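Lecture 7 notes: from sequence to structure.
We start with the chain below.
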Amino acid sequence: MATSYEKLLALNVPEKTVHYTAKDCQLYALSLGLGSNPMDSVELDFVYEKNLKVLPSLSMTLAHPGFWARDLDSGLDWVKILHAGQSMTLHEPLPSDADIVARSRIVDVIDKGEGKGALVYFERQLIDRQNGTLYCTMVQTMFCRGDGGMGGNEALKPVVHRIPQRSADAIDVQQTSLQMALLYRLNGDMNPLHADPDIATKAGFERPILQGLASFGVACASVIKLCCDHEPKRMLSMDCRFSAPVYPGETLRTEVWNEAEGIYFRVSIDGRDAHAIDNGFVSLRPVS
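Predicted structure tokens for the same chain:
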């Protein structure tokens, strides 16, 4: 066994700092397809500095630690790691310009057993370097297919948000552009799987795939549109599982269900019997 539960919990992930500006906020929104209709005044607010609004999912791209499972002494079989789920909690709305530090750590592991893999939970917090404000806590769920049997928290069970068994209350449809993965890379995710046809083919795909966090961002924008009256500051948290890869150019259909406890959502891929994102759940701040 190349790693262990204790080794992962003790792993030191270096802090990373970044200063981002309105330009980064605009580029992020553009990479998700917002602003495709320049006469749409609602989407214009996310891509034009005049009344700029910041998508909460921008946090996914800020001060990222890189591929730490490979680059640090984690002992994980990084070739067999899949991004299985993602959550974010917005303690404060993201400003359009800030100097931040990211502090990251492994918070827990669920061991499925020898030969069955393990779920590793990797937390990242974004903190304002000037005033200490905690903006966001993100937890990435990593399915480490080659690391079962390392030990873990036997009491911990993955949280699954069950989609209601009825028709959705609202639907938003967006056709992704053929260059969306290339544009999204400019936010900092330079994995060649999303750009290089040869690498994508070797990985078992017919062509480069869309980043999972790009699908996450599309879903975030759709929920804000359908449930928040286009006001991103109302989003408090967002959690989901990744289910299937998306190819740039495919059409994504985000369905939402309004329930007393919050918003359930799912992202389907038109033309395929597949869900890009499933078991999604969003909590909203009360309307002030």
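Points to note: Residues 16 and 65 are 7 Å apart (CA to CA). Residues 5-144 form a domain with the Thiol Ester Dehydrase; Chain A fold (CATH 3.10.129.10).
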